[in-house]
Design brief:
- There is one protein chain.
- By secondary structure, this protein is mainly alpha-helical.
- The chain has one domain (2-255).
- 73% of the residues lie in helices and 4% in strands.
- The strands form 2 sheets. Strands 1-2 form a two-stranded antiparallel sheet.
- A hairpin with a 3-residue loop joins strand 3 and strand 4.
- The longest helix has 24 residues, at 8-31.
- It is globular, with a radius of gyration of 19 Å.
Length: 256
Amino acid sequence: MNIFEIPKEDFNKIIAVFNREIGRFIFFVFVLFFDSIYFAENVTNSQILINILMLAGFFKMYFRSTPRVKELMIYAVILGFGGEYLFSRILGMYTYRLQNVPLYVPIGHAALYGRIFMFSKASVVRKYNKAVEQLFAIFIAVFATIYLVFFTDVFGFVMTLCVFLLLWKRPKDRLFFYAMYILVAVLEIGGTAFGCWKWPNIGFAVFEFLPSNNPPSGISLFYFLLDVSCFFIYTQKHKIAWSRLQVLKTRQRIKS
């Protein structure tokens, strides 16, 4: 496997980047305990406090980001609100504890997007892009298979297959989306374990031929829609600059 060919020094740098950019977001999963069923029933309802903490974390990250990431984060928040209401409140794809859409969720989408973007663009990660991508792909395949075999998660497995199919001819996007898949999986496992939200036992609570775990393994497929939408809006707003970038990339490929 290519990951074993990475020099130890560079491998440690990749781990350091992962911890810095993504590990901090994983910490937020444990903060979800304060919006859990247990905490609400035995202590108090503290969803407002979590919303405030997420807002603080969002703005801290926002003001430390590049102009491009800042703009993409704003798009992610706006689209996140719309997507959450569509999938949760209208389609009934999943349900939040208080039958609402907590403020920390769409803001969390933007933070997640920004963290993964910065991880995937780090120089040492890009240097060993294929090796890291391969490692993540193997992990995803094993993870989805375990969910299918032990939790009858057909819905999640089908979505995972869709992830691989969508990225089949998009090698430049694989690392970003594979990293997103893993981070979303961690977030979903934590959120459902605490009872912050819940997925039905079949896909969309409608399709009986798609048994689902709580959560399904491949739910990051729907996060991809958020990323694609953000990216589309960004390129449309910066058409001239984007066109120039594509021309430069084409020339570089021709020269090489």
